[in-house]
Amino acid sequence: MDAPRDRWQGRPCWAEIDLDAIAHNVRVLAERAAPARLYAIIKANAYGHGALAVGAAALEAGAAGLGVVCVDEGAELRAAGLDAPVLLVGATQAAEAERIVELRLTPTVCGTQTALALSRFAAARGVTQRIHIELESGLNRHGLPADDLVAFAESVRALPGIEIEGVYTHFAAAEEGDRAFTDAQYRALLEVSARLPWIPVRHCAATASILGAPEMALDLVRAGLGMYGYYPAPGLRDTVPLRRALTLKARISRVGEVEAGGTVGYGRTWTAERRSTVALVMCGYADGLRRALSNRAQLLVRGRRAPIAGRIAMDMCMLDVTDVPGVAPDDEVVIMGEQGGESIDADELAEIAGTISWEMLAGISARVPRLYYRNGELAGVTTLNERVPEFVRAAAPAGR
Ligand SMILES: *Cc1c(COP(=O)(O)O)cnc(C)c1O
Asked: Residues 47, 186, 249, 266: which is the catalytic one?
């Protein structure tokens, strides 16, 4: 089928995102975690899917709030008119306090300076600033150990304009199935929250625990990867049916012949063993097709797998299509997704590249246009120059 190709871009590499799949995943994850509420984690541009479109779709499907890492990500949501609670799961600095109060974000606070600054700005505006605090229970990144956390919470409780809404922790090895370590982290959170019974919301579960240990859902779960249709570990596949939301595509811009002995690409790492047909695909590592996949991964064209030939360049790569008859310029290539019954996903590419699906997805860069589909129809497009999809813009309150 011919996409309306020139409407959104000049460069033939784009991602198609199925918002019905996002909505389906939100619903099944929320159901599994119920009665806990679900926050949709849309940091890193919603793992490459687009924060605004995914955030809006997740809220519509029943997510109670959104989660991002930094203030700028929260600001993007507010600027587009998304009004839901936004939890910042990263560490926040005192210097960010004024913006956090203005934007009505809910930061994770573990330092007195930040708490004091938030209190000052909130009190000056006559608003109550909600915060969450984080227990350090095994990751050793941010968060406070139990005794320090209790002391910190009690001191912050007395500040004007601040309300500690939540206490949480983050698991270090839930994906790896390290149940003993995860259990210990969970117990540590229960113990500390029992000492702080006045904090209403306790949370610890990301996708791996929503799927593998739903009894740890407590009051709120933070769903990232699963919402995009991926499983954090193969052993979790039989839990609930998730649907992949993203297909990454590109077009072939040229098809050429290489004589036996000829080489392809930078560094001449691929040599034709026979007279070969190679196709130039307009997707490179700056779009998110990691260079580590050079000469190792396959892509789909005409419903068949074809190997990447030579090094992936910044903006393009080459496919050996000698065994795929009829390949022609303008043909659609699927980098992640399905075509003609064949399928390649972020798990497969991550395995080859020595990384994880999270990184494959989050690496799809800002210059790749996103096409959003609902009920099989194009509902909105974002590009490097137009960051707000039509259906989000249309729903935003006037004046934003
Ligand atoms: C990214 C993140 C999540 C989401 O994790 P997934 O494994 O993608 O579901 C949850 N909580 C915190 C604190 C995070 O940083």
From this structure: 266
H or E stretch covering 87: strand 86-91
**Residue 223 Cβ contacting ligand 1 at under 6 Å:** yes
Of 132, 204, 143, nearest in space to 167 by CA: 132
pLDDT at 10: 67
The angle formed by the CA atoms of residues 381, 382 and 387, to the nearest 5 degrees, is 140
Which residues lie below 8 Å from residue 315, measured CB to CB, with a gap of 6+?
Answer: 282, 284, 286, 287
Q: What is the pLDDT of residue 395?
A: 85
- The pLDDT of residue 7 is 58
Distance of CA 297 to the CA centre of its chain: 22
pLDDT value of residue 63: 98
Alpha helices, DSSP H, located in 133-258: 146-157, 179-195, 207-212
Q: Is 43 among the residues known to form the active site?
A: yes
Low-confidence ranges of the chain (pLDDT < 50): 1, 399-400
Cα–Cα nearest to 119, from 108, 104, 130, 105 = 130
Distance CA 394, CA 114 (A): 36
pTM of the full structure: 0.96
* 225 CA distance to ligand 1 middle (Å): 8
The predicted structure's pLDDT at residue 40 = 99
Interval 347-399: pLDDT, tens: 999 999 999 999 999 999 999 999 999 999 999 999 998 999 999 988 876 54
Pocket lining: 22 vs ligand 1, CB cutoff 6 Å: no
69 CA to centre of ligand 1 in angstroms = 10
C-alpha to C-alpha distance for 371 and 206, rounded to whole angstroms: 27
Residue 356 β-bridge partners: none
Q: Which of 316, 309, 314 is nearest to 253 (CA)?
A: 316
Non-local CB neighbours of 391 within 8 Å, separated by 6+ positions: 53, 56, 372, 374, 379, 380
Q: What is the pLDDT of residue 400?
A: 45
pLDDT at residue 394, as a whole number? 87
Q: Helix 112-125 and helix 146-157: axis angle, to 10°?
A: 20
DSSP 32-74: HHTTSEEEEE-HHHHHTT-HHHHHHHHHHTT--EEEESSHHHH
Burial of 347 (0-12, 13-18, 19+ CB in 10 A): middle
N-term to C-term CA, the chain: 36
Per-residue tokens: 24: 């389906």
